[in-house]
Specification:
Layout lengths: L11 E9 L4 E8 L6 E7 L2 H12 L1 E10 L2 H12 L3 E8 L6 E8 L5 E6 L17 H9 L2 E4 L4 H12 L3 E5 L8 H8 L4 E5 L3 H5 L7 H4 L5 E5 L5 E7 L2 E7 L13 H12 L15 H18 L7 H9 L3 H11 L10 H7 L1
Parallel strand pairs: 1-4, 1-8, 2-6, 4-5, 8-9, 9-10, 10-11
Antiparallel strand pairs: 2-3, 6-7, 11-12, 12-13
Helix pairs in contact: 1-8, 8-9, 9-11
Length: 357
């Protein structure tokens, strides 16, 4: 089932986000080592920019997606799902003769209760539509005029140009380095030079900092104000800069009673990071100051939404569940932060998801 419930808030015209990157269709295959009855497969629209955009939309932002899809039934599923989620797809380009990217995730629950997953990219006779197929033109100039925040999950000639033009126009630029590197580091570096906010994980941070401490990135890239490093069940770490003063905070994870999968937890963090820092969009990003209390509240919100996302199948299962309950995402986050845990009853296993959702 796709998300077919209206978002719980109207988009806020004063905060418009353009998210550019890969737009795949995910197949989630759940395998339980404790249950030999077979596996459950769920089809969901994926991609970190779509996942983050959907959560941002629930929080109240106005979100536009840019990317490339094929000209096939899967492409129609991707576009229709994003539009039902309240995302503007005017800058999503269909490529005739090319397939839409599909990713198969095998999600395993081991005998000790731990959950792991791996992504498989099925091969075909033609290369699937990818962010590298994005071209710039009149649409990108229009987008820069009409949006406040520009988020990317891919680096190529077009996205680097859009990021450079957006930063020159005084807009905020952010980049998600992803679970795995999306392209070579040398290709990514020109985009990082334009970023005010970067998100990565513990394993990839040394690639960005070239072996130096992660905080060194705040000095290497003059525009960079925030660096978020996710560290799985070890928590979150954020580095930020006020003028020449560099600061650091770390936050432990919030316990989740039962992890269904971790797909999309990082994308949920992305949405909360952008939403929490949105005031950067209305002042000079180089001049704005954030105190420790504001940054700590941002870390709390990201830890809460990450724990919540892990309780449901797929990247946006928690949003579908919240809409079914008529609950607002910000209220759920606030409750989790206050209790410092996710309630036992807040989870839906895959077999129930297939049957009831």
């Amino acid at each position: 089932m796709t998300f077919d419930h209206p978002p719980d808030t109207e988009p806020r015209p004063d905060f418009k986000v353009l998210l550019t990157g890969a737009l795949p269709l995910d197949i989630l295959a759940y395998v339980d080592r404790l249950d030999s009855s077979g596996q459950i497969a769920i089809e969901r629209v994926g991609g970190s920019v779509g996942n983050a955009g959907t959560a941002l939309r629930r929080l109240g932002a106005s979100c536009t997606i840019a990317g490339a899809i094929g000209a096939d039934p899967e492409a129609e599923t991707v576009r229709q799902t994003m539009e039902r989620d309240g995302l503007d797809t005017r800058y999503v380009e269909e490529l005739p003769g090319r397939p839409t990217r599909r990713i198969v995730f095998e999600i395993r629950r081991e005998a000790d209760g731990t959950v792991s997953h791996r992504g498989i990219h099925p091969s075909g006779s033609l290369p699937p539509a990818a962010p590298g197929d994005i071209s710039t033109g009149a649409w990108s100039s229009e987008a820069i005029s009409n949006h406040h925040w520009f988020h990317f999950d891919a680096a190529n000639r077009a996205t680097v140009k859009i990021a450079r033009d957006a930063a020159s126009a005084g807009k905020v630029v952010s980049y998600d380095f992803g679970y795995q590197p999306r392209g070579s580091v040398s290709r990514i570096l020109p985009l990082l030079e334009q970023c005010h906010v970067i998100q990565t994980n513990r394993h990839l941070a040394p690639l960005l900092s070239l072996g130096a401490p992660p905080s060194s990135l705040l000095g290497r890239y003059p525009k960079l104000r925030f660096l978020l490093i996710t560290d799985g069940d070890r928590g979150l770490e954020i580095f930020w800069r006020n003028g020449t003063i560099r600061r650091k905070l770390r936050r432990a994870t919030i316990p989740a009673p039962r992890v269904i999968d971790t797909i999309g937890a990082g994308d949920a963090c992305t949405a909360l990071l952008i939403w929490s820092l949105r005031k950067m969009a209305f002042q000079n990003p180089e001049d704005i100051r954030f105190d420790e209390k504001q940054v700590r509240e941002t870390l709390d919100a990201m830890a809460a939404v990450s724990a919540l996302a892990c309780q449901f199948p797929g990247a946006n299962g928690y949003l579908t569940w919240a809409a079914q309950k008529d609950w607002k995402l910000e209220d759920l986050i606030r409750e989790i932060v206050t209790a410092e845990e996710v309630p036992e009853t807040w989870h839906v296993p895959p077999e129930v998801w297939v049957r009831e959702y």
